[in-house]
Each structure stands twice: as C-alpha cells, then as structure tokens.
Design brief:
Elements lengths: L4 H25 L7 H23 L19 H25 L7 H24 L12 H25 L6 H27 L6 H4 L21 H5 L6 H29 L2 H27 L15
Helix pairs in contact: 1-2, 1-4, 1-5, 1-10, 2-3, 3-4, 4-5, 5-6, 5-10, 6-9, 9-10
C-alpha cells in the first residue's frame, strides 16, 4: 500500500497523544506523578493538542475534507466512523479533567474519576483506529490478531515517553517520578516484543490468495500467469494499492524503527533519570522525540509492507 503522509501522521500523533492522556489520567489518579494538579491539567491540554494535530492531518487524505463530518453517521457499520465518534467523546472528559485541574486550586477527589474515564475512552479510541485496518480482509498483513495489540502497545509506549518528558519539565529533572520512568520502560519493552511478534507472524504467514484463485481457478493451479499488463500506464490502483517496497529497504527501516523507537529511548531515559539535572531533562525530551520518530518510521512501514489483494491482477503472484 502507498503510505500517505497524512495517515502516517494521524496514526502516530493521535496514538501518542491518546497514550499520554491514558497515563496522565491513571498516574495522576494514583498520585504517582509528583506534579501540581495545574501542571497535570496543562500537560493534558498539550496531549489533546497532539491528538488534534493527528486528527486534522487525517482529513488531508480526503478528496473533500469538508465532508468528513458525514462519516460520523455510519458508526453502526464503519470502524472509521466509530473512531471519529470516540475521538469526539474522549474530548469531553479530557477537557473537563484538564479544566478542573487548571481552574480549581484544590480539585476535589471526584475529579480523579474524570482522569480514569479519559484513560478508558482513549484506550477505546486507539482500538477503534486499529480496527479500521484490522477489519480489511483484503490486506492480510492487517487482517490478523496482531494489528490491535501493536497499535495499543505503541500508543501506550509513546504516550509514556511523552508523560516522562512532561514530568521532567515539570520537576526540572530533580524530583523525577520513578513510577513514570518504570511505566515507560515497561511499555517500551512490551511494545518492541509485540512488534517483533507481528513482524515474525507476517513473515511466516502463508499466502491467502494467488493469481490462480483470483480468476476462479484452483488455488494451487500452476497454469495461471499474466500475459500482459491490463493497461499501458500506471493507474490509481497500481499507485495506491500495488505499491511495493524492496525487502532490503524494509529490513533497513525495521532496524531504524528498533533503534529510534525503542533502543535510543530506553538508553536516553535511563541516563536522563539518573543524571537528575537540566541535562537529564534534555535527554528525556530527546527520548520522547526519538520514540515519536521511531513510531513514524514504524507506521510508514505498516502501510508500505501491506499488500492489497487487488495487486494480484497487476504484479503480485500471491498475497
């Protein structure tokens, strides 16, 4: 599949933003952030801005962005519509949560419930986003049990890194909350294991369709072959659905994903926490930036390595 920049930005930024809202709601509710409530509220607003940037970027992929609101009416049958509805719903407790923390000197205990509700809504929204791709049976690399865990794990890992950056800035690095660091490290480990498992599963998966089965012949028939291209120049399907990335480039980008998205953030986070200084804060911010860069590369690969079954009619022998 051709990786659209707008969709890569949407899934990466919104996933990280929702992940940050999840951890802010949970860790603040448990009293593990070592931050004044007003700062937690400000950082929740920053996370919502990140989510908003991702949602806005997704509209640039549409031919008529002004009609995007119509997709909300199809929530009974469309995961895209459900994702849009949940994105709007999530803003309600998130805005109330952030507003209460910022505007009230001593927020009452029940405000913590809003944080938990925000976290729950953010989890459901990430799942809805993943199900947009998980539900497409025409793309075997997406239509499997790994897609939802990957989206959720990477979103939680990116969000945990952003929360660590928030805590480092809010405390100046001198009184860093250990819980935030432990959560980020654990989330990164889980995310890399899930992603490696997904890559391994896709590599071992057997083709679901072949050129023979695409034209109604027995699946294992050897006589099916493409005599000539169905058209003289590239069409929309070839550009968007039959996009292919060379295996050697995919392997290089996977290594980049692992280094930027997991190895570097872990090392920078550990060193930054141990230093407990302004330079440590800088390293933690760098860890969050590296994690986001790694997510962008991973998400680009998520689309580039996917093969749509329509490509069987052009260049692919099996999908």
């Amino acid at each position: 599949m051709h990786p659209a920049v707008s969709i890569v930005l949407f899934t990466s930024l919104s996933g990280a933003g929702y992940g940050a809202l999840i951890w802010l709601g949970l860790l603040h509710g448990l009293g593990l952030l070592n931050l004044p409530p007003v700062l937690v509220g400000v950082f929740a607003v920053v996370a919502m801005v990140l989510v908003g940037m991702g949602l806005v970027s997704s509209t640039f992929h549409l031919r008529h962005p002004e009609r995007a609101w119509r997709a909300l009416s199809q929530w009974r049958s469309s995961w895209l519509s459900r994702e849009g509805v949940m994105a709007l719903i999530t803003y309600v407790p998130a805005v109330l949560f952030a507003g209460a923390l910022i505007s009230i000197d001593e927020p009452p205990a029940y405000i913590l419930i809003l944080g938990y509700v925000t976290a729950a809504c953010a989890v459901v929204t990430i799942i809805c986003t993943a199900m947009i791709y998980r539900s497409l049976w025409t793309v075997p690399q997406w239509h499997n049990s790994w897609t939802v865990p990957c989206f959720l794990a990477i979103g939680l890992a990116g969000g945990a890194l952003i929360v660590c950056a928030f805590v480092a800035v809010g405390t100046g690095g001198s009184d860093f909350a250990p819980a935030a660091g432990f959560v980020a490290l654990a989330a990164l480990v889980v995310a890399v294991l899930v992603k490696l498992g997904a890559w391994r599963a896709c590599a071992r998966a057997k083709p679901e369709s072949t050129l023979a089965s695409a034209i109604g012949m027995p699946r294992r028939a050897k006589s099916a072959r493409l005599l000539e291209s169905p058209n003289s120049s590239q069409n929309y399907l070839q550009k968007e659905m039959a996009f292919r990335i060379a295996r050697k480039h995919a392997l290089k980008l996977r290594r980049v994903t692992l280094v930027l998205g997991f190895v570097m953030p872990v090392l920078l986070l550990i060193i930054g926490v141990l230093l407990a200084s302004w330079f440590g804060t800088f390293l933690i911010l760098l860890a969050a930036g590296s994690g986001l860069a790694g997510t962008l590369v991973e998400r680009w690969l998520f689309f580039a390595e996917a093969t749509h079954k329509v490509s069987l009619y052009y260049v692919t022998e099996a999908v």
